[in-house]
Amino acid sequence: MKKLWLSILTVAVLSMGVFGSVSAEPAVNEDVELTEEQKSEMAAMQKEVLEKEKEIIQKYVEYGVFSQEKGEKIIGHLDKHYEKLEENGFIPKWDKKHKRSHGDKDVDDENDEEDDNMDENEY
């Protein structure tokens, strides 16, 4: 009987963890508008992180982990990401994903696919 109650309690606790993490609320509150001071602070912090990431990529190129071309491509991607953050007032847009089926490809989409693959494999 003790084992039965222990099993039920274990299932209940584990279920709370699984169902508790599901939320209808978006991960980012996009209704917030940062003040100019907040934007400046976020810009400085993001710029600092961007420069550090670029240094890391350059080290990987130096050590031969990435080719020069691959390093430049990753750095370009990081720069685009920073520009997007800047355009969005330093409010991240993490909930927006590409919603397109794999059958909707045309010739122009080949470059997008390369960028998508780089996102998955860049680190």
Automatic annotation (TrEMBL):
<protein>
    <recommendedName>
        <fullName>DUF2680 domain-containing protein</fullName>
    </recommendedName>
</protein>
<feature type="compositionally biased region" description="Acidic residues">
    <location>
        <begin position="106"/>
        <end position="123"/>
    </location>
</feature>
<feature type="region of interest" description="Disordered">
    <location>
        <begin position="93"/>
        <end position="123"/>
    </location>
</feature>
<dbReference type="InterPro" id="IPR024485">
    <property type="entry name" value="DUF2680"/>
</dbReference>
<dbReference type="Pfam" id="PF10925">
    <property type="entry name" value="DUF2680"/>
</dbReference>
<feature type="signal peptide">
    <location>
        <begin position="1"/>
        <end position="24"/>
    </location>
</feature>
<keyword id="KW-0732">Signal</keyword>
